[in-house]
Design a protein that fits this description.
Helix 1 packs across helix 8. By secondary structure, the chain is of the alpha/beta class. The N and C termini lie far apart (about 155 Å). Helices cover about 55% and strands about 15% of the residues.
Length: about 350
């Protein structure tokens, strides 16, 4: 029964950078085949280092999957990238530029700088050219030899592997998980040693390390998610508390407005009642005033009538002066106790 690591290892191929770096570490023959097939000319690699770390003057670190040198001192950087969006040209150009940190020594003239080639195997069109193999050549001018190239960036789309040409056969070998089906004998043997031979335990250790790192990263991401969630909850609780306080302030404002409204209603009612009271008092005062004026007028008329009767003014003259009928004068005189 296969272990967890062996199950993972079974499904790996040379397009998995961890598997490739173990399988091809120090393997000058296999790297010679990769480079020669891509460049379509015989290249003899003399030195291979996998997972080469380079740090620039500002402290930025990159890790090259494969760093190789041929017998003429030319440098080759091989990268495998399953996600084409991570294999953009500026990144590969930066890798090419960083080679200078390794190969250029004090006293080296510009004409002595060796050529460097970056070969990027991708599962897709990383160069965005629509071609299975794309080249980008960087040139510099030499007054003696004219314009010559000193660097190349080559993209190889391993998904374009349907033909029988060497590039297509190589691409099929790179994505083949069953080492027994790999066509190139050198690559086949390299994969066999890594999956079944002396490098298997090294690869299993790498897988365990990767799994441990993955679990660590997952725990870190989970902790970060939990932290963010906690912060979001705290933020939501704070917002809810602020909204609660705002609602309480709004309720207090509504209550105050209600009190003010009630107070205004009571005041309006009081004013209305006071107005009605004053109106009633004024009406009663006016009524009394009218009644008093009527009584005074009547008293004055009666006094006047009594005076005229006592003066023996003729009845007809009295009626004319007071504008009263004879019967009315007689009746009023009778009430006053006067005899006409």
């Amino acid at each position: 029964m296969l272990s967890k690591e062996e199950k993972v290892l079974k499904n790996m191929c040379l397009m998995d950078d961890t598997f490739m770096t173990v399988a091809l570490d120090g393997n000058t023959e296999a790297i010679s085949i990769l480079v020669s097939t891509v460049l379509k000319r015989k290249i003899r690699i003399t030195s291979v280092v996998t997972q080469r770390t380079v740090i620039n003057a500002k402290g930025k670190k990159i890790i090259m999957d494969v760093f190789a040198v041929d017998d003429h001192g030319n440098v080759y950087v091989i990268e495998v990238e399953n996600n084409p969006t991570r294999a953009k040209v500026p990144r590969m150009q930066y890798y090419s530029d960083m080679v200078s940190n390794i190969i250029v020594q004090s006293g080296t003239t510009y004409s002595q700088i060796p050529n460097r080639t970056v070969i990027c195997f991708t599962r897709g069109d990383g160069a965005k050219t629509g071609q299975s193999l794309s080249r980008s050549v960087t040139k510099w001018k030499n007054t003696d030899q004219g314009v010559i190239p000193y660097g190349e960036i080559i993209y190889v789309n391993v998904k374009e592997n349907q033909g029988n040409d060497p590039i297509s056969v190589l691409c099929r070998d790179l994505v083949q998980k069953d080492y027994r089906k790999i066509v190139n004998p050198v690559l086949r043997e390299s994969c066999r040693r890594t999956k079944k031979g002396d490098k298997k335990e090294i690869m299993c250790d790498k897988i365990r390390q990767l799994q441990a790192e993955t679990r660590k990263e997952e725990r870190a991401r989970a902790a970060e998610r939990e932290k963010k969630l906690k912060m979001e909850i705290e933020k939501a609780n704070k917002l809810a508390e602020e909204q609660k306080k705002e609602a309480e302030r709004a309720n207090m404002l509504v209550e105050e407005q209600k009190k003010e409204t009630d107070k205004a209603k009571r005041e309006a009612k009081r004013v209305k009642k006071e107005a009605e009271r004053q109106k009633k008092q004024e009406a009663e005062r006016l009524k009394k005033e009218v009644e008093r004026a009527r009584q005074e007028a009547e008293q004055e008329r009666n006094n006047y009538l009594r005076g005229m009767i006592e003066a023996h003014i003729p009845l007809e003259s009295i009626c004319a002066v007071l504008h009263m009928s004879v019967d009315a004068v007689r009746k009023q005189a009778s009430q006053l106790g006067c005899v006409l």
